[in-house]
Predict the structure of Tartronate-semialdehyde synthase.
Amino acid sequence: MPRMTAMEAAVRVLEDEGVEYAFGIPGANILPLYQALSRSTRIRHLTMRHEEGATHAADGYARATGKVGVAIGTSGPAGTNMVTGLYTAQADSIPIITITGQVPRAQLHREAFQAVNITEIVKPVVKKSYLVMEPAQVPWVFREAFRIAREGRPGPVHIDLPLDVQRAEIHYDPDVDGPLPVFRPGPNPRAIEKAVDMLLAARRPLILAGGGVILAGASDLLRQFAEHVQVPVVPTLMGWGSIPADHPLYVGLVGIQTQTRAGNQAFLESDLVLAIGARFAERHTGDLSVYTQGRKFIHIDIEPTQIGRVLEPDLGIVSDADEALRALLEAARARTAPREPGEWVRRVQSLRRRLRRKMDFDDVPIKPARVFKEINEYFGPETVFVTAIGLYQIWSGQFQQVYRPRHYLVCGQAGPLGWEVPAAIGARLARPDLPVVAVVGDYSFQFLLEEIAVAVQYQVPYVIVMLNNSYLGLIRQPSKYQYGMNFAVDLAYDGGPGMDHVKVVEGMGAPGRRVVHPGELRDALAWAVRESERLRRPALVEVMIEREADAAMGPSLDKIREFEPVEDLPEEEEVTAPQRELEPVGD
């Protein structure tokens, strides 16, 4: 049996599990792993500027590929800096593995320098957390970590490695080792038969496609099933792209923030919802009494405890989304020939046409809707978009168009500011053949802007489109309308908009350009794409938008009376009272 250091064995496992990139920051208590990593010809390491940035880059890589992302740090604050990234990955079911160094085993109880019990700290935000106390366990802990990250509802795993464990030699033969099998549960056939019965009997059914459809790689099956039974599809924010935005059965998004008018209206007219891989987040459902009234629910999820957690379905099915959709398609084909579009499908298509929102504004300062109009028209369906949390994300959900799975990456549940800058690095490395565009807000950008230097250093090109209102916009809005204040949310100073983001990125070696007139947007986007690819680094387009622009959402807008008009909305298609309960205002 060959002998090698425990860290050489760990790196051999990482290579065999398909790891291409590691995002991290070296430190004294993780250097044996870095020594072994330095000899790898298959794994490229990027030195990040913050451990949180490392976890988000690994996260972005995992979302773009479906593979496991890897982030590395030393002991102490490196691990605590990773907690936000672990929480983000756990919340959105993203498989990443974080690795930290630790003081030697004999020092664990002595309050040594940069020694903290990170294994216990991260337990609430990971699927599994390891403190490896025996060197011989290292390769098997790493193998199990990859299996756990992938199996069931995917998620993060943390491994903490004492320094003396890293330095030890062990017996390990990589030639007789391999990845552990991943079990994917299939559905109960009787439950599938009942689900198809309920779907075919419904007059106005919808398929709610959640992030689990994309995680399972089941988007093509979803489309085939929807087409066979002719049932419209409303993706959740995490499931956006599971059906193309130009597909006849695509409806739009449902919710109180990231939503479309057609999506909300169609949902409230539905009588049955087949939810696949969705968790019914509160910003999707709004008021549950309104959300559930008048319709039945079938809930399919790979995690048994998700079923019944938010609402009690009429039928629950535990299954991997891919396995479930295969079974549903087979059962539907046995019951009925391919169906023709009926009255309900035509109604949904009419809603999509008639409940559009105006986007073609020429106002200065620029209205947010105009920014997304230009984004939709300039970037093709192959573009991978990355965005985080704020008014810009809500506008994105209301105005953007998404056509393919894993082409709209968003930190949905946790919503950490700053996520998009490092996540775009991981996404572009994951998909070097595709354009990557990070849509950011000015405040979110400032959280982890130092990671721009990483993209410059390692020649990772992508475009950043910033909507700058010089506010904590998402907080300003409820502060104004719910609390009647404008306290602590203004970022402007010295008579201007605040930080000069163009100069900041130029200081790190990236090009930037500011846009103040809507007629400049198209040219600026073309310039950013051209310069980013030419220089092999990020390029920023900073768009100065209307400072007081609001997003149509929730109770915080109850007092607003001025909204942009809707295109082609005849009287018979006016928004109904039930929609005003789910989405408390029209826009």
